[in-house]
Amino acid sequence: MKKPLLLIIFVLTMSKLSAQDTLVFSQQNSSLFSNKYFLYPKSKTFEHKFKTDDGQLWYGKGTYEIKKKKLILSFGDSEKGIKDDNKITKIYDRNNKTDTLLVEIFDKKLNSSSGHIKFKEQYFYGGFDNGIIKIPKSIFENIENPIVETFIQGSLVNIELTKITELNVLKITAFDIYSYYHFESNFERILTFNNDELKSDDFYNTTNKRKVKFILEK
Questions:
Q1: Residue 49's CB: how many other CB atoms inside 10 A?
Q2: Residue 80: in which H helix or E strand, if any?
Q3: What pLDDT does 145 receive?
Q4: Quick one: which H or E segment has residue 172?
Q5: Which residues have a Cβ under 8 Å from the Cβ of 50 and sit 6 or more positions away?
Q6: What is the CA radius of gyration of the chain?
Q7: How far apart are CA 115 and CA 109, in angstroms?
Q8: Mean pLDDT for the chain?
Q9: Residues 55/34, Cβ–Cβ less than 8 Å
Q10: Measured between alpha carbons, how far is 60 from 67 in angstroms, rounded to an integer?
């Protein structure tokens, strides 16, 4: 009778968990980092976020299924949704030329202006009032199409400023600008499911053990 009893407990546990909108499983003993699996039972999708104390983030998403106490995660194109938020817009006005280039960098995760612009060895930051970066166009003298740099999701982005005399505003929109992303895409990962716990290999070398546990947050 032991096996049928365990099966009944497992089914009842899954029925209870499936009724919730979001299930968050956090790795045990993770005060120096954050390693979590977010399961969305209604859509059978998930997200995985492993973030270190130096701002690096391993991010993946996809679909999942549970078979015989195994949580099977199928990672899809984890990069697409975040990169789709990255947009660069240039606003020109040949009739109202200015001596200053205004740069607006908006972080959709923080819902605020953030970031910086670099040209050669000079860095430009936004003001505390509105976050707008002001760059004098005189620094681009005698350069036909200057290239400035900014930092988005751990990647250096070069932006060519064509027709700099007519360019008045540069708008950059992105999601989670300051985190250094490592995208987890197009592979399968299998974890062991047991009541309110998950168990997996220590994929990120966070301990000196081969296996780590994830506990369901209440």
A1: 17
A2: helix 78-83
A3: 94
A4: strand 167-174
A5: 33, 34, 35, 36, 57, 58, 59, 204
A6: 24
A7: 13
A8: 90
A9: no
A10: 21
